[in-house]
Amino acid sequence: MGSNSLHVLKGINFNVNEGELVAIMGSSGSGKSTLLNILGMLDEADSGSYFLDNIPIKNLNEKIAARYRNKFLGFIFQSFNLINYKNALDNVAMPLYYQGIKRKERTDKALHYLEKVGLADWATHLPNELSGGQKQRVAIARALASEPKVLLADEPTGALDTKTSYEVMELIQGINDEGKTILIVTHEEDIAHMTKRIVNLKDGLIIDDGIVEQVRAKSYV
Amino acid sequence: MFNIERWQEIFETIRKNKLRTFLTGLSVASGIFILVILLGVGQGMQNGISQEFEGDASNSIWVWTRPTSVEYKGLNPGRFFSMTNEDFDFIHKTNEDAIEYESSRVRIWGAVITYKKESGNYRIEGVFPGFQFIENQSMVSGRFINQQDINEKGKIVAIGNKVKEALFKNDEDPIGKYIKLRGIPFKVVGVYKDKGGDREEEQVSVPATTAQQVFNRGQNINNLSYTLKPEKDFETAVAKSEEFVASITRYLKNKHVIAPTDERAIGIGNSLEQAKRFYNLIFMIKAFFWWVGVCTIIAGVVGVSNIMLIIVKERTKEIGIRKAIGALPSSIIGMILHEAIFVTAIAGFTGLIFGLVLLEIVGPMVKTDFISNPSVNFNIAITTVFILIIAGALAGFFPAWRAAKIKPIVALRDE
């Protein structure tokens, strides 16, 4: 990183209500990942304010950021980011470990979420024994395990083939149907249209923000 | 520390990363192991050489005189002086508690000794009964000079084995026979041999008092020789003998008007001083072993530091993931430190136990004069283990601390 500062986001003003399923779209360099990182408290905005569940998120030190991330947010990454040497169950149980939940309860809960993503039978498998789609499901189960208010997905289908992508999207739609708020960063039109609202970014500005007719992923599968 | 959840997490990590853990442990364990062995051998050498000296009666002290070398109280340097019976008696009286054997010595260099037609040129030593023990002479036949001979100034002689062989041909028994020392007849009462070699057997011993009278020495004596009573340990023995030497030197200098600064006038041979030089040598060897051991430990610490750095580097992404899902920086540092301390502690104690067991088993089997009962001060070994653990923790801390500070978004990008 050079010493030249680059303003990636130049004035973003938007609201997400509880239960929404939002796609953030834009070409590369449009600032969509930066926006997601700020929302995910992995990064902080130079100016402006951010309220999550009516709590102002500002002046975060590492400790508070970690606590908020653990309590409010679930992350889904393009590259899954599972811990290689831990099996699926332990990966899912990890956020619960950092919540200070006892082992027994952790395992029960983790198993419940693995069941929810349809991988209960794979609980004891290591990530490298799973297919890409399965890995992403484990990651989704992990994101859900801490019972966050918001799920943030950064190109969740970026590393998957079309069929698997739709399967993952079907799962995400299902979770959203249960009332969870989900933000998805994507550059794929078909994925974006499976959400309920599409925000289009270009050069750090919102150029379009509108409700769309949700395409159910099931119809493709 | 006593968080069961944390322990489970650590054990899981260790179990899943056996090679990494093994390599860390190996460098720690081998460091401690080598240190223990080195210290053990060092201690063994000290024990062995101590025994060599304690077993021997070589704690003898010899005093002789030489011309003075410093002008003192109007007396020129280069003055000859001689010790006298008075000196011998005074030292006897003032040091009775410390002295084991004592003898003054009147030496006649080169005297023709004859028996019938055989003759030879030998040294005559005028001595006391204690001289036999100071010189480690043992009797082949007959007896040595006794106190009665001293008191009566008897003309009796104990002869060295070489003298006997030269004068008494055809295995003639010399006991009771008369031999002539510078023409004066002496009765042979014994034959002795000396481990010191032929030279020590080519001499004859007569009572010191007789020698002074017969050979016109007046009250003069050439040498004083002593052995001191055994002490419970070597250090005390050395201290006592040094004290004794200092006291007689002070006395003799005062008595014979010799400058206190005159290093030459009174010659002292202290065999314990020689032994002490051996001790200094052992001390150097031990210091060297310590040095090598400490270097080994440093190498171990560097090894552990390296491995910890690599581990943290390797786990950067995992740390990012953990942070993204809500791990506090403190819990990241705690996790890495906990693992580092746990692994170094187990490995350190393993190395310690292996080293101690090896010393226990092999130690008694070592059969040389210079190593005996190699052992290690347990406290030192334990301390070393703790130093290594602390070093491992420090080595782990800095990379862990840095890793915990990395923004999760950066750590996650690390492929």
Topology:
The complex is a heterodimer of chains A (221) and B (415).
Chain A: E1 21-25, H1 32-39, E2 51-52, E3 55-56, H2 62-72, E4 73-76, H3 88-98, H4 103-116, H5 132-145, E5 150-154, H6 162-177, E6 181-185, H7 189-192, E7 197-202, E8 205-211
Parallel strand pairs in A: 1-6, 1-7, 4-5, 5-6
Antiparallel strand pairs in A: 2-3, 7-8
Helix pairs in contact in A: 3-4, 3-5, 4-5, 5-6
Chain B: H1 4-16, H2 18-55, E1 60-65, E2 83-84, H3 85-94, E3 99-115, E4 118-127, H4 131-134, E5 137-142, H5 147-152, E6 156-160, H6 161-167, E7 178-181, E8 184-194, H7 198-201, E9 203-207, H8 208-214, E10 220-221, E11 223-228, H9 234-255, E12 266-270, H10 271-314, H11 316-324, H12 329-362, H13 378-405, H14 408-413
Parallel strand pairs in B: 4-9, 6-8
Antiparallel strand pairs in B: 1-11, 1-12, 2-10, 3-4, 3-7, 3-11, 5-8, 6-9, 7-8
Helix pairs in contact in B: 2-10, 2-12, 2-13, 10-13, 12-13
Notes on the protein architecture:
The complex is a heterodimer of chains A (about 220) and B (about 425). Chain A is an alpha/beta fold and about 220 residues long. Chain A has helices at about 30-40, 60-70, 90-100, 105-115, 130-145, 160-175, 190; strands at about 20-25, 50, 55, 75, 150-155, 180-185, 195-200, 205-210. In chain A, strands 4-5-6-1-7-8 form a six-stranded mixed β-sheet, with helices on both faces. In chain A, α3 (about 90-100) packs across α4 (about 105-115), α3 (about 90-100) packs parallel to α5 and α4 (about 105-115) crosses α5. Chain A is globular. Chain A starts with 20 loop residues before the first strand and ends in a 10-residue tail after the last strand. The mean pLDDT of chain A is about 85. Chain B has about 425 residues and is an alpha+beta fold. In chain B, the strands form two sheets. A six-stranded mixed barrel of chain B has the order 3-4-9-6-8-7. In chain B, strands 2-10 form a two-stranded antiparallel ribbon. The radius of gyration of chain B is 36 Å and the shape is elongated. Chain B starts with a helix and ends with a helix. The interface between A and B is medium-sized, with 31 and 28 residues.
